[in-house]
Amino acid sequence: TCALPISTLEGQWTAAVGGFPGRQTAARAEVWGLAAALELSEVETVVTDCQAVLKGWRTLEEDAWQLDRGLACGGASDAWCRVAELCRMRERPAQVRWIRSHKSLSEARELGISDADWKGNNVADEAAKGAALRTLEAKDVGKVAEHVVVEAKVLRLLAAALIRQLEERAR
Fold first, then answer.
1. pLDDT by residue (tens digit) across 40-58?
2. Which of 24, 29, 43, 99 is deepest in the core (most CB within 10 A)?
3. Strands 2-7 and 13-18
4. Quick count: other Cβ atoms within 10 Å of Cβ 13?
């Protein structure tokens, strides 16, 4: 599942969420998100928090929108093919820039990230996470629950060991 954040002229944010063909991975979702943005001729700049997308974009740009061996053979080759095709069809090339993800607004401001870029990134992340959770099958939910139970047991054991160490030091 990938999410494309959209800002209105009034500064309100929403996200278009959708699936994409093939294997579902975070990296593929990021590249398909780029392709979805490039489908809109009005889009001039795409902001991504995925360094692999920025690197792939730069490679495509340097190679005049032709796929090199790395992009053509990688796990997201179908998505990169679509991105290259869309770039060749555009009247003006779009720009892609990278921002750090998972930062608070104040941290983002300190890094020079605009409020709009920060908000758009957060809208996309939350929408993609929500969509991914909604598409989990029952067996996947069971697997996640099993992992949570195991992790909780491990945390309890670690906490007990830490408490014992602290008690021993206090004596």
1. 878 888 888 889 999 999 9
2. 29
3. antiparallel
4. 15
